Amino acid sequence: MNNSSLLLQGSGVSDPALPTLGADQFDEEEPKERRSKALIYGYFYVALNLGSLVAETVLAYIATSGHWVMGFWICTSCASVSFLVLLSGTLRYRHYKSFGNPFSKFIQACVSFLRKMKFQIDSNGEGLYGIQRDGDTSVRRIHHTNGLRFLDRAAIVSDEATEMLLGEGHRSYARNFHSVTQNEGVKYILRVLPIWFCTVFSSSAFIQMLSLFVEQGSTMDRTFFKFQIPPSSMTAFDIITTSAFILLFDVLIIPLYVKVMKRPPKLPGELQSIGIGLVITIITLVVAGFVETQRLEFASKDGEETSSLSIFWLMPQYLLLGVAEAFVNVAQMNFFTSETPDGLEGLGMGLSMFSSAIGCYVGNFLLTMVNKITSSDQGQHGWVSPNLNDGHLDKFYFLTAFLIAIDLVVYVVCAKRFRGI
């Protein structure tokens, strides 16, 4: 196993768990703590962005200077300090019993459902197993809902199962039964999947844009006085915008609104925020397409991959992308964790981050297919050519904006049909 695989495993374990642990430290019954719990995901995303800012500026400079060993030691030191800080609060953390392995619960529901396919479901929801076992007392009991009613078969109490309950012992009973609370947990996970599918494509657009923006910048005039700006450092505008928007929204914008309007604002919910972010993403892609059109007009005519257009023309699309990320990613984390039952918040956070991981593959697949379709056997390059001056990156941006618009329409339909906890 190589070092990158170990790094990915470490991130996959810690990244979903850290914000969930932070949210568990606040009591939803207390108004002030409820507000703090809502902010924890935004601040967590700010922390991720600030870490990326240091990595893409300081560490990138150290690496390009040839001091790779120093860079690795700096990363090791930062990770060690973070681990010690995490351990220092162990005795003061609020600890909640987990729901158990969510995948085993899901499999149990499927097995119980398949065993009871022939059973009829009572129209009033009666005859379903709703008694919680002693081991589940720390998990909030979820009331029966009418959505996805075909899954209610998993919780039907049959005569055979009733006999097990009365005298055959706990283990055989557990294998044949699925409580209403467990069953509703499975329902909630299935309900968020359409929203999750819609966020996968938006995640692919974010990831693809960042890499393509750097490609654009590498071909432009990067002179700032006597300094040559590294194309990758322009990503700092995206990171700073995202972090500043999240922090200023709660610290400055909302208090200023209350002071001027004399009333608290009606803030958009998580689903509305994701929709707003998708609209801004479309605008970002359109702006990037027009900037690329301008870059091509000032492109070199001698075959070199250069353009006399200044790299600072990329700033508007970086700033818009930062605002879009602030809307989509923070609301996405809030949504997936708030719409999963108690004990499954980590799975909800994992779903949010998993959409970004899958988005990488979706973006690469889209880019490959577009290049394959738009290139020819006669040597004509695709839209995203190795030499950007020979391609049409602007058309790829416009196409992606069109696809995001379709994704937005599907998302709006799914969001309107969604019924949460």
Automatic annotation (TrEMBL):
Question: Mind listing the UniProt keywords for this protein, alphabetically?
Answer: Membrane, Transmembrane, Transmembrane helix
- Whether Cell cycle counts among this entry's keywords is no
What GO molecular function terms would the record report? transmembrane transporter activity
Record InterPro entries: MFS_trans_sf, POT_fam
- Enumerate the subcellular locations listed in this protein's record, separating them with semicolons: Membrane
Q: How does it sit in the membrane?
A: Multi-pass membrane protein
Read off the Pfam families from this record: PTR2
- Give the residue spans that cross the bilayer: 40-62, 68-87, 192-214, 234-258, 270-291, 311-331, 343-367, 396-414
What's an example GO cellular component term for this entry? membrane
Q: Which family does it belong to?
A: Belongs to the major facilitator superfamily. Proton-dependent oligopeptide transporter (POT/PTR) (TC 2.A.17) family.
**Protein name as catalogued:** Major facilitator superfamily (MFS) profile domain-containing protein
Per the UniProt entry, what species is this protein from, by scientific name? Trifolium subterraneum
